[in-house]
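Sanity check

After download, print the first record. It should look like this:
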Amino acid sequence: MDVGRRLVAQLLALGAVPLLSRAPGATPSAAQRAAFANEADVACIVSLRCSGLDQPSARGVAGYYFGSRRGASERGRVLATHAVRSLARRLDTPDCRVHPSTTAVLRESRPPAAVVELGFLSNPEEGAALADPAYRQRAAGALAEAVQDWFAGETPAGGRTA
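Expected structure tokens:
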């Protein structure tokens, strides 16, 4: 995904050592991506995707962290919250908040992890924005800021987190 490659470039410029779990043309499963991150002993995981619904008016950014009846990843929740709030602010799009999930990349990873939905391709305006390289660059910048804030241990500002 282009936003992921742009995020890697921005994190490299900040001195981080980011890894992509998806090579061009590769489609590893969520479990394979979690295993890759576990083996690489990464500090955190930010998994990116776009949404789509039958309702074209749906729009905004959302985040997911591991959470079930047995417990939740607080550090993953904070990472997802940083990502969603930064994206909503910098992209001027609705904050659809963060939610617990048991998807494989969250459930099977050892480091704190967040799945971030960058927007709805099914929304005509948001789909067009996601096709714009400048918008994707702003999204990468927002995510780089979120990762920096998470590493700095900053508490996400304002609003509810779940």
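If your output differs, re-run the checksum step. Summary of this record's structure: The helical segments are 2-13, 30-40, 74-91, 104-107, 124-130, 133-152.
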